[in-house]
Amino acid sequence: METPDKFDFAAYVEAMATALELAIPDEIMPAVVANVEHIWEIAQPVLTFLLPDTVESAATFEP
Question: Which residue from 7, 12, 26, 45 has the highest number of Cβ atoms inside 10 Å of its Cβ?
Answer without folding.
Answer: 12
